[in-house]
Amino acid sequence: MPILIVGSLAFDDIETPFGRSDNTLGGSSTYIALSASYFADKIQMVGVVGNDFEDGHFKLLHDRDIDTRGIQVVDSGKTFRWAGRYHYDMNTRDTLDTQLNVFADFDPHIPHHYQDTGIVVLGNIDPELQLKVLDQINKPEMVILDTMNFWIEGKPEALKETLKRVDVFILNDSEARLLSGDPNLVKSARIIRQMGPKTLIIKKGEHGALLFTDSGIFAAPAFPLESIYDPTGAGDTFAGGFIGHLSRCPEITETELRRAVLYGSAMASFCVEKFGTEKIAALDMLEIEDRYESFLELSRIEC
Amino acid sequence: MPILIVGSLAFDDIETPFGRSDNTLGGSSTYIALSASYFADKIQMVGVVGNDFEDGHFKLLHDRDIDTRGIQVVDSGKTFRWAGRYHYDMNTRDTLDTQLNVFADFDPHIPHHYQDTGIVVLGNIDPELQLKVLDQINKPEMVILDTMNFWIEGKPEALKETLKRVDVFILNDSEARLLSGDPNLVKSARIIRQMGPKTLIIKKGEHGALLFTDSGIFAAPAFPLESIYDPTGAGDTFAGGFIGHLSRCPEITETELRRAVLYGSAMASFCVEKFGTEKIAALDMLEIEDRYESFLELSRIEC
Hints:
By secondary structure, the first copy, chain A, is of the alpha/beta class. In chain A, 34% of the residues lie in helices and 25% in strands.
């Protein structure tokens, strides 16, 4: 089933205790698309870039068979830029600089040949734009949404309007507490699921992720890595692996949802091992399946 | 296999956002013993109490078939007292008062008929006292040790000496980082296991626990509870359930160790549902097995 991904494309300057990487290709939709590309037949990206987005950047996406015809190139401007520095514990970061550039006027236009897509992934962008995207799609099979505290605080009403039309909602633990107004994650999940999404994933960073559905709760561990070089994009990479696996399932069952969470976790565990998209742009299915097996092993009782 | 538990007995004054409980029976060995009592044939406690430790307190232990003949009663003093207040998030607490009382001069004496015990659990007490206990035991089958940051910072050398004689070491994530000097838990685990204990459990509170053995890593989730009333004793209750399950296994395999972590987690999840030992003093095996099944369900992939 084809996947349509709408979100940001960016250049990041990243500093971690292990080094730095400048002008790294990033953005929510980049990470989601690269990660999903190992599973999905057909990936269509919608976004906006400036005149500094070079052929090499497109090539990196094309090499993963990603359809970039939905990416608008604004010749008069620059691509969205973000600069951040991670602290020693890698769990907290400071944003040093944000330049929206061409992203400030992003008005997502879904090309005609994308409008019958099966799965729509709405990366972390203004919920008003997310609504605009949904208005242009013909009955999608599944809508997945990611957001962040910035929109929960800044545009709660638009976000809640969008959530009514969302099947799978992915956010992290602090965002879930913020949105629900409840510090307890189980209660938060119940409150948020009442806003619309039947399937909710709460990411807990190095502590794994929780999947909430009508069937109950599934707790996925995070991979206990010895070295984490750069957490940038790990959440989007999770979403990409999650939705990538679902796109290849003939039927979405509880088992497949749980497997999808583990595939997402496996992809995220690769992402943090190198800077930016370096690692997730150059994987093969063998190592992905191998990492997935390690995840199974991690929570297997019978040895 | 009989379990010998050496640790503190105390009276706690506990304040949480949900209420308060004064003069509650507590202490590391109390929680460990009550929790283990649902699994083990024979539990022997060694500790010290004052003249304020009443028949009713002994009765609560005897009702769970716990052998208290190793508990010294010092008529001239009072039992160890602790008072603490938990913050809104329940993850942090302030100690309001600590009165060591008779515990200040605790000199553990292992009764003759306890010296051939199979499993020795050294609750969170001065590592010099833990060593003294080990010197009095004839070749135990297994030594389990719990500790806290207070001893890691205050008596690191004695603690490391004790660790050489320990099979299973249980501590929490911040204590593991403190002891190893490494922020990464996988590296911490390797460093700590080199100090002696082949089996290491790192507790992560609401994020579950990690088991490190020669066979690899096992990640146990925490039970996603809607209401946590009082986290006091949850770590000790975990240890009790863990060792309780192992005590009934004819052979300690990797599978049994993993199951033991889940039984420990199940017991801890009960502990926090009421104040003090109220819940774990009055369980039955049916609800314990039921909670254990819920833990299995929580990380089961195939539904």
